[in-house]
Amino acid sequence: MLLIRCPYCGDRPELEFAYGGQAHLARPPRPAELNDEQWAAYLYVRANPRGLHAERWRHLRGCGRFFNALRDTTTDHFKATYKIGESPPA
Amino acid sequence: MKRQSWSGLQLLWRSLGRHRGWQEQWRRAEPKPSYDAVIIGGGGHGLGTAYYLAAEHGLTNVAVLEKGWIGGGNTGRNTTIIRSNYLFDESARLYDHAVKLWEHLSQELNYNVMYSPRGVMMLAHTVHDVRVLKRHVHANRCNGVDNEWLTPAEAKAFCPPLNIGADIRYPVMGAALQRRGGTARHDAIAWGYARAADALGVDIIENCEVTGIRRDAAGRVEGLETSRGLINSRKVGVVAAGNSSVVMKMAGVPLPLESYPLQALVSEPVKAVFPCVVMSNSIHAYISQSDKGELVIGAGTDVYTSYTQRGALHVNMHTLEAICELFPWFRRLRMLRNWGGIVDVTPDRSPIIGKTPVPGLYVNCGWGTGGFKATPGSAHVFAWTMAKDEPHPINAPFTLERFRDGVLIDEAAAAAVAH
User: Fold this and answer.
1) Residue B214: CB partners within 8 Å, gap ≥ 6?
2) Out of A45, A75, A76, whose CB is closest to B254?
3) Could you tell me how many helices (H) and strands (E) chain B has, helices first?
4) pTM for this one?
């Protein structure tokens, strides 16, 4: 089980969290102006990297807040967690 | 290369010579500078594709590149369940194509894949489950796929260890049974296809990791950079399961995939106590017994994407709790070992089998949590697609473009599968 650092509550076990998938996916401001290819890319295509992955988590059974994390998908180690609205640490 | 035919007589004959003189099952091939077709990924689907390319389409100058050892990925890590009771017409055709090939595969390959149609029973625990499974029964029968509805008493008669008491948290309200469903031996499918493909001239190259995909000025695939040098080929099939996103990125083709760890575990071996396969999607139990005697149990996926081939223990505990309630006998069994594989999941939980925007590059991926059952069917239609440069009618709906065009095959919502 992962130990995840909620930026508001500190280290908590994975069971308290819900996973929110890839982070920093912005909904296109004017969807009607996209073609099908672009809309499908927004809806379905994901980076799915082997390595560092920026992703959303929600401290569902804690403070309830969303936050972002940088995790290495080859080791499951978290490099950092950070608040929504902040840029991923370099 | 002529292969020894395997039979009981052959076994007897070789035993007289103290079992010396058995041939190797396949050659340890060295990569040649170029091939007519190359398959990336030496699992069951990839090796099967190479076999059908050689056996049915006359393409024998073919290589299978595997970064580790063949059958060491999800082919060696799954729970070996075979069934075709999927809801939608497209899926029913695809998976039943595979079941029909399973039925004669041992004879065709001269390799005992231990296909055992012992029946797959899916349990209903709620009124909603009953409706969904009955809908599956009807849909399957319209598609010529066997499936029948059982009362709780009939379910218990078919699987005596099952607890149908009313005093459990989620009592059994009925079950859907596909009698042609069952299990097979996971390694045998990889080794059987490898041996048969090798006999037809296919090179199986292990410890050969693809690090780049080269394209010519027109964009067509022309070769692969690998850990064992450059290999030229103008036809490349990517069958890399959990690593499909990584490989396809080398050709600049983004995929609608996410890779998750999926875990499984086995108990200590016991004598034959479990006659069939039982699945419960609602409370997530997934169990059968191997011929060695181990109970083979499928757990769920972890919630996050990962390439680690391991997951958390609470995921296994979740399924064990359900199994102990449904089969109280098993409470005293100890678990022997657990492991994880990386499954590539599509948004609609149906695979992608077909051409890609890159000429000469084909992809067979997105099998998610349920690819083993489809191995022969998937390999068969994918070989057709690669040989003829057009999809077989069975895999024609399973394109990459269906996400753009909005024609999903949404087994995620229809799920006969536990996700």
Assistant:
1) B221, B222, B223, B224, B225, B230
2) A45
3) 11, 19
4) 0.96
